[in-house]
Design brief:
Layout lengths: L1 H11 L11 E3 L3 E3 L2 E4 L9 H13 L5 E3 L6 H6 L6 H9 L10 E6 L1 H12 L5 E7 L17 H13 L3 H6 L12 H7 L3 H4 L8 H8 L3 E7 L15 E2 L6 E2 L5 H4 L5 H6 L3 E6 L8 H11 L21
Parallel strand pairs: 3-4, 3-5, 5-6, 6-7, 7-10
Antiparallel strand pairs: 1-2, 8-9
Helix pairs in contact: 2-13, 4-5, 5-10
Bound molecules: 2-acetamido-2-deoxy-beta-D-glucopyranose (3 copies).
Length: 321
């Protein structure tokens, strides 16, 4: 509760000395890192469902300060930004978030596309550093189909039409969000040439970015959840970085792919240290139960014991206001 009051103070006062991000430390339970949540396509920070997730995070690990990422100041603008925009610019916006940038370290929770965007944040900036990253139904290896809009929303319909007809145009790649993580193994050349976001963030092009690899490898834990009955994100195995041949249905798991074997992203380092978790959740895309969420929060967002705080990824950064 204390941190929420401080946030309100920050919002209404120009003199912001007290920060909402002070990690809460308790001699018995340890240090509770703030939790940053990036929601999925068609959602917005004002949704009741997200408030419930935030409440669950707080009740599972008391003292958790939860920050819901927003790309606009109102719900409808935030929702539009899930369909329309340049993902590179959206991630840069997140990095400049005045609230986020004062945190010493955070945990991160990504729903659907929010998962690969948070990974992009980690790879490209990671200031403040992410301790544990948890993604639910994210498209780490892209989508090879765009399912009919689950939302009867003109923005989504417009985005869908663009994705079908002109996905590799610079128009779509700079404005239509799902186009920027579209990846069909049957048209890999076009993807490598034109993908504004995913090909870069997955270090699939010839020139590899070592910063991306170093930053992702600095995670304490990277947990991916796949929804067993997911028919919205195609293929669902993308949640685990697997590649699926749409003709044969053959699945090539992450550890058999060059991205892992040649360690383009630091995933192999993480895997060998036991820091990569592949979990499944029952049900359709984003059909989240409190039980699954609570277990995830207990497992990945619990308070840290002091010894963990000296880990390299968690050096507390001094910032001037
Ligand atoms: C790699 O990514 C970092 C962080 O985004 C960026 O500053 C740097 O210029 C990139 N390096 C190359 C070689 O593109
Ligand atoms: C997206 O934004 C970045 C940063 O402004 C820019 O460099 C890039 O060219 C844009 N992408 C496209 C496809 O226009
Ligand atoms: C998918 O499998 C078919 C049949 O074996 C093959 O011809 C095709 O090249 C495969 N696609 C990719 C992207 O590997």
């Amino acid at each position: 509760m204390r941190s929420i009051t401080l946030l309100a103070t920050l919002a209404t006062s120009a003199i912001s000395v007290a920060l909402p991000w002070q990690s809460t430390t308790d001699a018995d339970s340890g240090t509770q890192l703030p939790l940053v949540i990036w929601h999925g396509l068609g959602d917005d920070f004002e949704r009741e469902g997200l408030a419930q997730v935030a409440e669950l995070a707080e009740s599972t690990n008391p003292g958790t300060y939860v920050h819901l990422i927003r790309l606009a100041n109102d719900g409808s603008g935030d929702r539009s930004a899930t369909f329309l925009g340049n993902v590179t610019e959206q991630i840069a916006l997140l990095a400049a978030d005045p609230i986020l940038s004062t945190a010493p370290a955070i945990n991160a929770l990504g729903f659907s596309q929010g998962g690969q965007f948070l990974r992009g944040y980690i790879e490209r900036c990671n200031t403040p550093p992410v301790h544990n990253l948890v993604t639910f139904g994210s498209q780490h290896n892209g989508i090879s189909e765009f399912e009919s809009c689950a939302y009867t929303n003109w923005v989504c319909k417009a985005a869908e039409a663009l994705l079908r007809s002109g996905r590799w145009t610079s128009f779509a790649q700079s404005r239509v969000v799902p186009a920027q993580y579209f990846r069909d193994p049957e048209e890999l050349d076009l993807y490598l040439e034109n993908s504004n976001f995913l090909a870069d963030i997955n270090n699939e092009r010839e020139a590899k970015n070592e910063t991306y690899k170093r930053n992702l490898a600095s995670l304490n834990r990277f947990a991916m959840y796949m929804f067993e009955e997911d028919t919205v994100a195609v293929p669902k195995e993308s949640a685990f970085f697997s590649e699926v041949n749409a003709t044969t249905g053959e699945i090539t798991p992450l550890h058999e792919r060059p991205i892992y074997k040649e360690d383009w992203l630091g995933l192999k380092q993480l895997g060998e240290q036991g820091k990569l978790d592949f979990n499944t959740a029952p049900g359709q895309h984003m059909e989240l139960s409190d039980k699954i969420l609570r277990k995830a929060f207990e497992r990945y967002f619990a308070p840290l014991k002091e010894s963990h705080l000296s880990a390299p990824g968690l050096v507390v950064q001094q910032r001037s206001l």
